[in-house]
Each structure stands twice: as structure tokens, then as C-alpha cells.
Amino acid sequence: MSAPENAPAKPDARDRLKAWMDRRQIVIGTSFSLALSGAMIFINVVPGLAAYFGPAGKVAEAFGTDPVKSTITDVGLILFFGLMLFMFRQFPQPRLYALAPFRTPRRRLQLELAFIFAVLVVGQIASNELGKFGLKATGDTDILNVDLPAYRVLSLSARAGLWEEFSYFLMPVAFAITLGLMVTGITRRPARWAKSLAVVLLLVSAAGLLGGHVYQGFSGLPGHAVWILTHATLYLLFRRLWPMVLVHFLWDMKAGGIIPSDTTVEVILAVVCAGLAIWLGRKLFPRKTVNIS
User: Fold this and answer.
1) What confidence score (pLDDT) does residue 13 get?
2) Which letter does DSSP use for residue 259 in this model?
């Protein structure tokens, strides 16, 4: 007796293997994301929060006393975080919501990147000026004047840009979303609390990142708070990490004296970028008009 013509064909061995690989990739991806993000939250956020209650420490201790050994450590950490970000990109499920896709319409991508860079520049300049004001108010103006070789400033800036954006912004959101995906897969019910958990963890992580800068003096914390909140808000809105890494890297290079600094130029740049951000924001977030007729 022959099988009915409309009966679905049984999957062959190749189809079954592909389905198994897809399920395996999801399991590995979610497990990797959950373990990595949980570890990063613990390693980075807990010491940062503890810094509020402990000694602020010295800049020399934070930057390392041996430039060569510290630079080798920086390079190792940069390679580690680059590898982790590459691996995170390979698994579709966890990164689907924690990182914006590359395949965005070109016009939209251009508007987003221009808006992000404009807001980041304004936020960095504002935080820098607030930091200067706080240090001058307390008379603690020499706390950041550390004489470091150029290669050390370069490695330190690259490490800070990758480490802080990856660990303190991407990982908390990835943890919440991955946990939501796993719970949804087990219970077959949508985990609507995942987005709220992501915001809460991001705020806790931001507080830990702020605490990680206590060594620069409590008077500089308002400036750092502006910078951290700017980055956190932009990440939640657009989920794009690399613009934040790049601006952070360039700004630390400026702070280290590699890129020349001029207050007048910074103020003009902030005003121009603020106007650009407002203009781009209207294009990205147009007001909805309601026709009453």
C-alpha cells in the first residue's frame, strides 16, 4: 500500500542532523552567553560597588607600576575581549536582542551612527568639564597627572574601551535576555520581565562602573556619571557597541596626552554636535501626527 500523496515527507538524515545542530547551537549559545555574562557581572560589578565603601586607592596602583608588564596584560585582555565578542556574535539567539544586526538599511544605519557619535561627543565633553570642576573645587588637581609612556596610554585606552563597554553594558543585557530565552524555552511562556531585568542589571552595572572610577577621587564622580548614563541610554536605544568603544578609546587617548586638547575647540565641538544630535534625533524619532476629522 502506497503512502498518500499529500502526506508530509519524512526528514532524511541530513535534515535531522541540521535540526540537531541548530538546537545544539542554541543550547551552546545560550549557555555560553549566560555563563560569560554572569561571570563578567560578578568580576566587574562587585568590586566596583565595593569601592564606594573601601579605600579609593592610588592612581599608580590602578594603572600599574611596571609599564611593560601592564601593557602585556592590556594586550592579553584586549585579545580576550575581542575573542569573546567574536564568539558572542556567532550564536544567533543571545545576540539577537543584545546587539543590533549588521544588516540594517544603509540610510538608517548612517543616521544611527551619526546620532550616536554626536551624543557621545557631547556627553564626553560635558563629563570632562564636570570632572574638571569637581577636581578644582576640592583642590585635587594632580590626581590624574600620571606620567605614562605613549605605548602604555595606547594599550590602556584600548583595554578600557573594550573592557568597560563589553563588560558593563553588553553583558548585563545579554544575561537578562539569555535568561529570558531559556525560561521561555522551558515554560513555553514569553518572559516579558526580561527587558525590565535588563534595565535593572544595566543600572546596577553602571553603579559598579562608577565605583570603578573612585580611585580618581569622589569629586570626579558626577562627571563620570554623565558619561556612564549617556552610554547606557544609547546602548539601550540602539544596541550598538563599537561606536561607544571607539569614542571611549579616543577620549582616553586625549586624557593621556596623545591627542592634543583645547577647551575652546571642545566647547565649539560640543555645541555643533548638540545641534547635529537634535537634527538627527528628529529624523530618527519623528513625532506621530494624529488626524482628527
Assistant:
1) 56
2) S
Q: How many CB atoms lie within 10 A of CB 182?
A: 19
Name residue 279's amino acid: W
Mean pLDDT of 215-231: 80
State the Rg of the chain over Cα.
23
**103: how many CB neighbours lie within 10 A of its CB?**
6
Contact 280, 115 (CB under 8 A): yes
- Residue 59: CB partners within 8 Å, gap ≥ 6? 143, 144, 146, 215, 216
* Residue from 277, 211, 198 nearest 243 by CA: 277
Torsion of CA 185, 194, 283, 129, to 10 degrees: -140
- Proportion of the chain above pLDDT 90, given as a percent: 7
User: How far, in Å, CA of 247 to CA of 120, rounded?
Assistant: 7
Q: What is the pTM of this model?
A: 0.76
Contact 171, 41 (CB under 8 A): yes
Residues with Cβ within 8 Å of 23's Cβ and at least 6 positions away in sequence, in order, are none
